Every structure is written in structure tokens, then in C-alpha cells.
Amino acid sequence: MSSLKDGQSDDAAGRKSSPARVREWFSRRTGIDALLDEALSERIPGGARITYVFGSGLLFLFLSQVVTGVALALYYVPSADHAHTSVAYIVKVVSAGWFLRSLHVYGASAILIVLALHLTQVFLYGSYKGRRELLWGAGCVLLALVLGIAFTGYLLPWDQNAYFATAVGTNMLDEVPLVGHTLKLLVRGGVSLGTLTISRFYVLHAFLLPAAIFGLIAAHVYLFRKAGAAGPTDEDPFTARKAQETFYPRQLLMDMTFALLIMAALGLLAYWRPAELGTVADPTNTQYLPRPEWYYRPMFEWLKFWTEGEVWGIVVIPAMVAVLFVAVPFLDRRRERRPLRRPVAVGTYAAAFLALSALGVKSYTDDAGDPAVALKLREQHEATQQYMQEPFQPQRSGILTVANSGAVDVTQGKTLFEQHCATCHYVDSTQTKVGPGLKDLLSRDRMVNGQVPTSENVREIISHGYQEMPPFNDTLTEKQIGDVEAYMATP
Amino acid sequence: MSGRSDSEQSDGPQAKPTSRRSFTGALIGFGTAAVALVLSVPLFRFAFYPVFQTTAETAWSDAGDASDQNSMTAPVERAILVQRADGWRMITARQAIYELPASMATDGHRVLSPVCPHMGCEVAWVSAQRQFRCPCHESVFAEDGSYVSGPAPRGLDYLDSEVRDGRLMVLYQSFRQLVSKREVIG
Questions:
Q1: What secondary structure does DSSP assign to A203-267, as a single string?
Q2: Hey, is the C-beta of A196 within 8 angstroms of any chain B C-beta?
Q3: A398 at the B interface (CB within 8 A)?
Q4: Cα–Cα distance, A133 to A136 (Å, whole number)
Q5: Pairwise CA distance, residues A110 & A266, whole Å
Q6: Chain A contact for B39 (CB, 8 A cutoff)
Q7: Beta-bridge partner residues of B93
């Protein structure tokens, strides 16, 4: 297509400006003009339309997620000990960190919204007809991958909501027949949710799923170009007969305008309502009411219906819906694309969409309708807001070396413990006094705040307190805190 | 819409009047550039945050009981613990220093940083030759830290120190490499 350009360049055009010559030099070696021509001259039967902007809107949003995600990875640490602190550092300390994280968080929601619009447009227009089964199938896989990447990303900040949402989400795997339990252990990296779960989710979220999404986008776009744009609903799905318009300039302009609107909306939202970070995950807080993101609310509500035979609600019915969904182009094979003449297909789609929406709305109204729940959710939100206001607390590391230098004084630690700690804690028992009993604390799997009881983490709690326990970094010196910790570590 | 589409279909994109086409192209190009520019501001600030950070003030470190400097005959290596911010952590890092005998401490600077001002390797005291030698690129320094030979641009840097209540206190700092004058960078 662009061989025309290449051929005429030397003789016909005569003298050229240097930018044009550089461009030509580059184009001859890369074929970039041919590629651009190919991309821009995509033919759209019936001409450009606003309703066609959603696909490229999704591509744009995905790229935005990649850019902001790579930026966040500069500071994020995927481990149970550090994940929450590093996200707090991004949000509270690093320049523009709160803004970029908000773009990433809201970008995820935006992808789900635009995906719903894209899907609805394709469905209503019957654009899956006419040898487009694989194109549709690739889209279905992309939908699943997007839900997966949203789910895995949600855990990474390791705050209360993230922890419990993932606990529920991964427990559902248990219902999968035969391999369910193994699958759960594989995904979690063990029986309980912990640091291995974070690494696994991080690898999925930042490496495997994005790679898969890139691949499937390529396949989706290729299959789209192979089949050609379907055009309006009265166009024949196999052989386009309507007058055609190229993608450039009008459709491109519409697509770019849409992308610009998305970016503006995300930017304003991120600026005015920055995404929140809750307090650090605390598995012992049985009072906590976890709630998933809005796009998982329908599933959340759906699970409440299955008090028995959960395998139906969690596995069988969703699997049937998924198979039915992928099979749509095989089931609806007529040439007819006008929505009003496809009452069964469009009716089913509308019913499914309404059912999901109703479940989601019911989930919110149930919460609002129960005074106790509403109060608890409001309190949790206030706690989150308060946490967001607090200045960043750096995590103390490496104090261990002080202890190793032989400076700790266990006897002094015993005296200090009796003065400051014994009012609330037994040192020789695991019984709760006011706070938990501390016998064998350092050989336990977890402390009450969910952290591993390393020397550092124990000092951290003594220094900064935890829930009702006051911070002692004003009362005790670092050396004294080390002595107390050493006393507790002494059998 | 269909009228314009017709003309495009028959002649391909090249046939469009260039003025309107290039205007749209310019509009799209300009829009893209504007968005990229606006977005790159937070991205740049985010990625370059550590560069623009003013270095956290360094605290004095306790290097242990001060020796009797007059009875020392050779530099002594000591380990000190330095508290500093490291990203989202507050860490206590272990650092080596050299304490000099009184006879070698010029201008009363009794503590040397072991960091070679060439490429930043840590120099070793070689008692047989009574010299500091850098293990990396073979810079050699005299027992008072002054430059002898090799690629280093200056002698070893002194660290501010003082004796408080019989303890040797050291202000651990880093210095710019590869310049001929001692210059504190953090």
C-alpha cells in the first residue's frame, strides 16, 4: 500500500525538507508508513460512529494501567511485612504518589465500565455474527483476564478490605470439584493468606496476566481486522455492502476524544477524591465488615443465596453462564442483526444485565437498610479516613544489629516489663489479661496484628502501639525497648 | 456521512484534500502530545522523588569508648551504627570507620571514612606497609589518609568527631566521588 510512497520519493518529489528526509529514511528501513497506512485505513461500513469508540477506549485504559502500574512498582514491595507500609509510603510521602495510585485504582473501575459498554454495543449490534466466533471468544477470554487482574490487584495493598476480600475470593476455590482444595493452596501459597499469597498475586497481577492480556489484545485486534468492522445493524454480517469510510480521520478523532474524556474524568476524580488506603490487614479483627469493590458486589450478593449446595452457586451456574456466553455466536447464527428482531438474544442479555445490576443494588441497599451494618461500615470508613490523615510512620528495620552488639540487658528488660507492660500482659502465660498473653511470643506464627513475631516487629509494636495498646517510644528509649524485647525472648 | 465515505472508498485516503486532513492530523497529534505532557508531570515527579529529596540530617553515632589516642600506634577500624531513612524504612546500618592515632590526626581530624574517593570501594589498612590500599583500583593512601598514588582524586575524607563523656561520637557522612575537594552529599 505504501510502496507508492516509497517509489516516488527520490525522483518525483525533488528537494525535500530535512524532517521529511529523515522520516523517509526511517520509513524505508522500518516500513512504519505502511504499517500506519494499514492501521489508519481500516474500512468501516456505514461510516464512523460514536458507538464504536469503546474498544479503543479499553486499549487506552489498559495502556494507562500499564504506565501507572509500572510507576507504582518503583516503590511497592510484595511481602506481608512491607506491602502496606510501602503503599502508605507511595500515598503519603512520594510526590504525586497519591495521584498515580488513584489513577490506577479508578482506572480499574473505568475498565470494567467501558468493558460493559463495549460488550453491550457488540451484543446489541449483533457484531459477533458472520465468522466472528473467534473474535468474540478472544473478547470473552479478555473479560475473564480483566476480572482476574482486578481481583489480584485488590489484595496488593494488604489493608483490611483487601485481606478479607481475598480470603473470601480464594475460599470460593474450595468449591471446585476434585481439584478445588489443591487449587486454593496453590493460589494462596499455603493454607492461610500470607506473604506467599502476596507474591503469587503480584506475579499474576504484574507479569502473567498483563502478558496474557497483551497477547489476547493482539489476537482480538488481528481477528477484528481479519473479519472487518461489522458496521451498523442493517449491514450484512458476512459481506459488507454499505459505503465505507476509513478509520482515519473521523473515527480516530472520535476515539481520541473519548480517550481524552476518560483521562479527564479519571484525573479529576483522582484529584478530588483520592483513592483510600485502609489500615493494615488484621486477621484477628473479627468485628471487621469486609466489602468487595462495586464490580464484585453482584457476586458477593449472589453468594448469600447459597446457604447449601454452594457448588451450584459458585461453580456450576457461573460455569454454565460462561459456556453459554462464549457460545453466543454459535447459538445465534441468523444473519439478522437488528436488536428488535432478535428478541431472544437481546432479551436474555438484558435480563442477565438487569439481574446482575439488581444483585449489586440489593447488596448496597441491604447494607444501608441494616442500621448496625450501616453504622459499622461508616465507622470503618471514618477509621480509614483518619488513617489517611495520619503522617507516614516509617517501618523500623535493622535494629536487630543493636541487640546483636551485646548491648541488651535482660534484667533491665524484666524491670521495665514489670513497670510498663505487666498491667496488661502476662509474660508467663498465653492467657489474655487486657492484651494477649506473651508466653512464647517469638516462637508463634503470627502476632495479633498479623505480622510475624520477629524481633523487629515486636519492637515495632512496643514503639508504636497497636489498637488499645499505647505507643511506648515516648516513655522508653530504643535501648530500653530492646531490653524488654530481649526479656520476652528469654525462655 | 455517506457522501464523504463514497469518495474515500473510491480513491483511498490519499485523495482527501490535504489541508483538512493535515489539520485533523495536527489536531490529533497536538491532543496526544498535550495529554502525554500533562500525564508526564506526575509520572516524572513520582519517579524522580528520591532525586529531589533533601538528604535527611545525619545523627551523631556512638562509636564506643574513646581510646587513648596517644598510645595508639596505627589506625584502628571500628564499626558504628548509623540510623537513617531508607525509603519507607528507618534503618540502623553498620558502617566502618578508621580511628587514627594522635600522631597521624592532622588538624585534629581523628576519624577517617574508609570510602575511597575514586569509585567508592572501602580501603583496607595494610599494616606491613603502613598504608591504606583500595582493593578495587589500587589507590594508595598514607597513614594519615593523604593521597599517595593511584587513580583517586584526593586523600581519604575525614569524618567530624568529638569525645563526649568518654565516648567517641562520629558524624557519618557521604562525600562526592571523583572530585579533588571533599564535598558532603549526605
A1: HIIIIIHHHHHHHHHHHHHHHHHHH----STTS-SSS--S-EEEIIIIIHHHHHHHHHHHHHHHH
A2: no
A3: yes
A4: 5
A5: 8
A6: yes
A7: B82
Instruction: Specify the higher pLDDT residue, A455 or A402.
Output: A455
Mean pLDDT calculated for residue range A459-471: 84
Mention every residue, 6+ apart, whose C-beta is less than 8 A from residue A55.
A118, A224
Distance of alpha carbon A148 from alpha carbon A189, whole angstroms: 17
* Rounded Cα distance, B81 and B73, in Å: 25
Chain A to chain B Cβ contacts (< 8 Å) = 113
For residue A355, the SS3 value is: helix
CB contact under 8 A, B24 and A97: no
Q: Which residues of B touch A46 (CB under 8 A)?
A: 2, 5
pLDDT at B57: 60
- B169: three-class secondary structure by DSSP: strand
In single-letter form, the type of residue at position A148 comes to G
Contact (CB, 8 A) for B97 and B114: yes
Q: What is the pTM of this model?
A: 0.80
Q: What is the pLDDT of residues A16-36, one digit of tens each?
A: 788 889 989 999 999 988 998
Nearest by CB to B13, which of A67, A99, A246? A246
Q: For B129-139, what is each residue's pLDDT tens digit?
A: 999 999 999 99
How far apart, in whole angstroms, are the C-alpha atoms of residue A467 and residue A434? 12
Q: What is the pLDDT of residues B62-112, one digit of tens each?
A: 888 887 777 888 898 888 888 888 888 888 788 899 999 888 887 878 899
Nearest-neighbour CA in chain A from B107: distance (Å) = 32
Peptide linkage before A329 cis (omega within 30 of 0):
no
Q: Do A244 and B9 touch (CB under 8 A)?
A: yes
- pLDDT by residue (tens digit) across A150-191? 999 999 999 999 999 999 889 888 888 889 999 999 999 998
**Single-letter amino acid code for the residue at A420:** H
Q: Is B10 on the interface with A (CB under 8 A)?
A: no
Whether this model's ipTM surpasses 0.90 comes out as no
Per DSSP, helices labelled H in A273-409 are: 297-304, 310-311, 317-326, 328-331, 343-369, 371-389, 400-402
Distance from CA of A230 to the nearest CA of B (A): 16
User: Cell numbers 454499505 label which residue?
Assistant: A242
Find chain B residues with C-beta within 8 A of A85's C-beta: 88-89
Which residues, 6 or more positions from A81, have their beta carbon under 8 angstroms from its beta carbon? A195, A395, A451, A452, A457
Chain A residue nearest residue B16, CA to CA: A249
Nearest to A162 by CA among A308, A328, A296, A314: A296
**By the CB < 8 Å criterion, does B185 face chain A?**
no
Q: What is the DSSP string of B57-110?
A: PPPEEEEEEPP-GGG--S-EEEEEEEEEEETTEEEEEEEEEEEPPGGG-GGG--
Distance, in angstroms, between A293 CA and closest chain B CA?
26
Looking at per-residue pLDDT, the higher value among A491 and B161 belongs to: B161
